[in-house]
Amino acid sequence: MIVRIILIFFILSHALTFPAWGEQLKKVVFVPQWFPQAQFAGYYVAKEKGIYKKYGIDITILRGGPDYIPSVMLTRGKADFTTMFLSTAIQKRTMGIRLVNIAQITQRSGFILVAKKASGILTPKDLDGKKVGLWSDNQLQPLAFFRKCGIKMRTVPQSATVNLFLRDGVDVASAMWYNEYHVILNAGIDEDELTTFFFDTYGLNFPEDGIYCLEETLKKNRQLCRNFVKASIEGWQYAFEHPEEALDIVMKYISEANIGTNRVHQKWMLNRMRGLILPAGKDTSMGTLNKEDYNTVVRELMFGGIIKKIPPFGEFYVNCARKK
C-alpha cells in the first residue's frame, strides 16, 4: 500500500514537466555562437542532465564558431534555436531576417577595455590620445563610450589574441570579462596593476547572449519555444548550483571539439557568466530583456549608422521565460 502511494505521488509530481507517456520528444537543433566553452555551460548541462528531455525536447547541440553563423543556420533551416549578441540580432532583424529574442540570458555586458596602470591610465580622460585595440566586428560599444566621454583616441586593429597589448603595442585592449581578461591575468599581470572600464557602468549596457529563433518557429510552436527556454534556464541554474559538475560537462564538450583551453580558465569563465546572468543589484529575472537596455542598444546602432530603422520592441522580443 505504501509503495503504491509513493508511486502515485511520483507520477503526479512529475506530470507537469515530463511529456506524457508514449508522446514523442520534439527534435530540435541548437547552435551556440562560438566554440564549446563555459559561456554556454547551461545548455550543455541541460542536455547532459536530461532537463531538455524532461520538457519534451530531444536536443542536438552543434558546435558553433565562425563557420556556423547563427542567423545563417536559422534561415537555412540548419538550426531551430541559437544564441546571439543583442546588438547583432537587432542588426540582422533590420536586414530582413525575422529573428525573435525569446529569452535574454545575460543581463550585463561582459565587454570591457583593459589598460595597464603603469601607462598612466586610471580614468576615461586618461585614454585621450592613447592607442586602443579594437575588434573589427565589435566596435560600436567602445566608440559610443569614447564619444560619451569626449575622448579622441587612436584605434588599432586587434586580432583574436591580446599579444599586442601584452607587448605594449597598444595602450588599451578590448576584452571580454569572462575570456581575454583572464588571459591577461594568466600572462602574469595582477588585477591591481590593471584599470578596467565596464561599459555598463557608463550607461552603455549592451547585454550579449540571448536565445533566438525565427518568427516562423515561434508562431508554429510557441509551447516548444517556452519549453526550450525553461529547460535552458533550469540548466543554467543547475550549473551555478553545481559548478564542478558543470565544468566536468563543459570539459567533455571541449575535449570532443579539440579546443585548446583548460579547466582553470573555464572555471573563471563560468564564475564570470554567473555575474553577467545574475548581476548583483539588478532586479531583472533571467530570460527577461530589459526595455531600457534595448533602447540603449538601438540608439547607438542608429547613431553609428548600422541600422536605419528601429524594430518595435514588442515584435523583436517575446518573453518565453514567463511562468505563465
Give an overview of the whole structure.
- With 324 residues, this protein is α/β, with parallel strands linked by helices.
- The protein folds into two domains: 23-108 and 207-316, D-Maltodextrin-Binding Protein, domain 2 (3-Layer(aba) Sandwich); 111-202, Periplasmic binding protein-like II (D-Maltodextrin-Binding Protein, domain 2), CATH 3.40.190.
- Helix content is 41%, strand content 16%.
- It has 14 helices and ten strands.
- The strands form three sheets. A five-stranded mixed β-sheet has the order 2-1-3-10-4. It has a three-stranded antiparallel β-sheet with strand order 8-5-9, with no helix packed on it. A two-stranded parallel sheet has the order 6-7.
- Helix 6 links the parallel strand 6 and strand 7 (154-157).
- The longest helix is centred in the last third of the chain and has 20 residues, at 222-241.
- The radius of gyration is 21 Å and the shape is globular.
- The two termini are 36 Å apart.
- The model is unreliable at 1-17 (pLDDT under 50).
